[in-house]
Amino acid sequence: MTGSRHLSQALSEGDGISLLAPVSNASEATDAESDGAEAVVVVASLAGIREATGLPILWLVGASPRAAVEAGADACVLRVEAGDDGDRLSELHEEAQSLGIEPVVGVRDDEDLALALEHVDPEILLLSVIGDEEEQDGLDRVLELLPDVPAGKLAIAEVPVRTREDVLALERAGVDGVIVHARDVSRLAGGPPPEV
Can you list the domains of the chain with their CATH numbers? Predict the structure, then answer.
């Protein structure tokens, strides 16, 4: 891996759901880590981000895995595109693995999920409703899609989250992580983890 941690490790360790925070600069990455985020999400190459945080960095841009590596990311999203018969997704998935970056396959519905599972069998899935016309019902749509995710796979929700109750509903359903606004991390985290 290019950075200090695997995204899959951050999602699977710990007791509850992981919060992933989109950041636009190194300072926000540091703040997100302090507030309890377990990964940061970037959509552009950010100077100093690798030095600013020890958290895994998820490259959310629909670009090549090579661009994610050049940006210092630990994982990159590969979205199932309309009309893809699985070949393009397979190529990008293989490229990501060969570059040592974790591929996260973004799906929007049952058809996308079936194609992803058939062609690449991803370890991490991004269940996304962002940009959909029915985004308002996004939480319900993610919760409906989740039972089709096979056991042993990690699921991240890319859905508007407004309250701690939304986060808890995703956690109870078995979602491993959710992308939330960086400014909301401390409010949505719900307090410090219990001492062991």
Answer: 7-185 (3.20.20.70)
Tens digits of per-residue pLDDT, 21-46?
999 999 999 999 999 999 999 998 89
Nearest to 126 by CA among 149, 147, 92: 149
pLDDT tens digit sequence for 53-62: 999 999 998 7
Task: Classify residue 103 as exposed, middle or buried by CB count within 10 Å of its CB (0-12, 13-18, 19+).
Answer: buried
pTM of the model: 0.90
Q: Which of 85, 89, 37 has the alpha carbon at shortest distance from 62?
A: 89
Amino acid 30 reads: T
Per-residue pLDDT at 107 exceeds 50 = yes
